[in-house]
Write a structure and sequence with these properties.
It contains 14 helices and 20 strands. The chain has 430 residues and is of the alpha+beta class. The protein has two domains: 155 residues, Uridine Diphospho-n-acetylenolpyruvylglucosamine Reductase, domain 3; 202 residues, FAD-linked oxidases, C-terminal domain (Vanillyl-alcohol Oxidase, Chain A, domain 3).
């Protein structure tokens, strides 16, 4: 039995394989084809959709997590696809390297994070897959190919955000940057003040994001900027208070109270926002970017054109206040620069990402369906690893390069070896 992190997706595949080497991966794909199985790959299980669910062959790459090469001259690091971001960040730091941008969760595998278009925040910075220099891919017939911007550029633009529909990614080469230190300043702002000054806030900060509760007029903003100051890691006691007590234990308590007494959500959110205060940290970049989050939830996230940020934030805040949805989690808002991966949600446009969460013990579908109608009105594109209700028919008009991706898919997987029900629903038949 396989289960994702949130506990919202499960499956019982006919074959659950743990290949020890990349050659074993190719053999597993060949064996699956001989058995007539669909092949899917489980990363760290942090996606919320049924993208992995199969009754065929499910591959886990947890043992394919080796560091293969570190080139200090080019600042490129080659790793196997199953390595987690947490493991990779540590290796990079030991070699004086870093990702230019990261999201706030580091539990994902590098292949899973890039295949779904995972991102951080920074109006001048692109999503995580843009840091890839090359990709090693096992295709439907067991052949291993290497693609990059010069070698098979069409496959390259498709595979960077491939949703596992083109083959099994077994290794990647990452174009890193020199290690850097970030200064993070978290402070409260009135939501309307923040929205009124948004362009300036995005222009003057390397990384800017916010969290806001539907029932509170305030937002917790986080500005993160490069600094030449020496890192000042928090003491263990303060780190526990900020990361565990406030972000996990307090949030879980609020969620449980809200579950049994929904009318308490409004007062709790207003009180919590006022008490949040401010925070100041200076530390290694990945330690600033990432945050431990242990409260289980289900998530929807949409990428919309940046110019619609204020209107969309107001609309989803109003939605989150509706009592029938019983929302106890904050809304998260981030921004990224355009990129050119065929199915990147930020492809070709300056993008605002808005993420909604629902406590895992509550029904998320009504809230997310209502939110999706709002995002649809702005031409939103869903994060490929998070819940949505779109189909290939509704998604195709939103991606100018949709047919280019489809052509690569037909070329690499003409029989639909990597197409489970989820892939057929969101990408169509081969």
């Amino acid at each position: 039995m396989w289960r994702n992190w949130a506990g919202s997706q499960t499956c019982q595949p006919a074959v659950l394989a743990d290949p020890a080497t990349r050659a074993d991966v190719a053999q597993a794909v060949v064996r699956a084809a001989a058995a007539g199985h669909v092949v899917r790959v489980a990363g760290a299980g942090h996606s919320f959709t049924d993208a992995v669910v199969t009754d065929g062959t499910l591959l886990s790459l947890r043992h394919c997590n080796r560091v293969l090469d570190v080139d200090h001259t080019t600042r490129r690091i080659r790793v196997e696809a199953g390595i987690t971001l947490r493991e990779l960040n540590q290796v990079m730091a030991e070699n004086g390297l870093a990702f230019p941008n990261l999201g706030d969760i580091d539990a994902q595998s590098i292949a899973g994070a890039t295949a779904t278009g995972t991102h951080g925040t920074g109006a001048r910075l692109r999503n995580l897959s843009a840091a890839l220099h090359s990709i090693e891919l096992v295709t439907a017939d067991g052949t291993t190919i290497e693609v990059n911007a010069e070698q098979e550029p069409d496959i390259w633009r498709a595979a960077r955000v491939g949703i596992g529909a083109l083959g099994v990614v077994t290794a990647v080469t990452i174009q890193a940057v020199p290690a850097f230190t970030l200064e993070a300043v978290d402070r409260l702002m009135a939501v309307e003040e923040m929205l009124g000054n948004l362009d300036e806030l995005l222009a003057v900060n390397d990384h800017f994001q916010l969290f806001t509760f539907g029932h509170s007029p305030l937002a917790m903003t986080s500005a993160r900027n490069r600094t030449d100051l020496e890192p000042r890691p928090l003491s263990r006691a303060r780190e526990w208070v900020e990361d565990e007590l406030l972000q996990n234990h307090a949030l879980r308590t609020v969620c449980e109270i809200g579950r049994f007494a929904p009318r308490a959500n409004g007062p709790l959110q207003r009180l919590g926002s006022r008490l949040a205060g401010s925070s100041h940290r200076i530390d290694r970049s990945d330690r600033i970017f990432t945050t431990p989050l242990r409260v289980r939830f289900v998530e929807m996230e949409y990428a919309i054109p940046r110019r619609h940020t204020a209107e969309a934030v107001r609309a989803v805040r109003e939605l989150a206040r509706r009592p029938e949805f019983e929302v106890s989690f904050p809304i998260e808002v981030r921004w990224v620069a355009p990129d050119d991966a065929y199915l990147s949600p930020a492809g070709g446009r300056e993008t605002c990402y808005i993420a909604l969460h629902q406590y895992h013990k509550l029904d998320w579908k009504p809230y997310f369906r209502a939110a999706e109608a709002i995002f649809d009105s702005f031409g939103g594109r869903p994060h490929w690893g998070k819940q949505h209700f779109q189909t290939a028919q509704t998604l195709r008009p939103r991606y100018p390069e949709w047919d280019s991706f489809a052509a690569v898919r037909r070329r690499l997987d003409p029989e639909g070896r990597f197409a489970n029900a989820h892939v057929r629903r969101v990408l169509g038949e081969v």
